[in-house]
Amino acid sequence: MKHISLIIFIMFFSAGTSAKAILYTPPLSPSSSTSFYCQIANINKSSKKVILEIYNGNGELVRNSTVLILPNSIKAISGSDTDSQFCKFTVVDGKKSDVRGSATLYTTAGDQSDLVALPAQ
Question: Which DSSP letter does residue 26 get?
């Protein structure tokens, strides 16, 4: 009887303890001369399905996309050009350690280089 109780206890508590692989970036505020992007890189040896979401400072969803990222490749989505925003990355079929994400501001003039990139945690 003790073994059955132990098995039920383990099944009950292990069913709800799977942590989602979710990462967030700090917010960034683009200006008229910058563009906001959420970027995610797959550093795992297998393809990963990831949900990319951009939220504004009011907690409203600005843009989202579900992507399949091949090993050692990058996907990105752009945000609005005026609101303070942050990125949310949900790794559907993997762990946080399978990917590296960032919120990035690019210049919109010249060579469109990165101005700042903040890592997701």
Answer: -
Whole-angstrom Cα distance, residue 46 to residue 98?
A: 9
The token duo for 101 is 């994400």
User: Structure tokens of 102?
Assistant: 């960032």
Domain ranges of the chain: 21-119
Distance (Å, rounded) from C-alpha 64 to C-alpha 2? 49
Instruction: Identify the burial level of 110 via C-beta atoms within 10 angstroms of its C-beta, where 0-12 means exposed, 13-18 middle and 19 or more buried.
Output: exposed
Write out the CATH class of domain 21-119: mainly beta
For residue 87, what is the enclosing H or E element? strand 85-91
Q: What is the pLDDT of residues 32-52, one digit of tens each?
A: 888 899 999 999 999 999 999
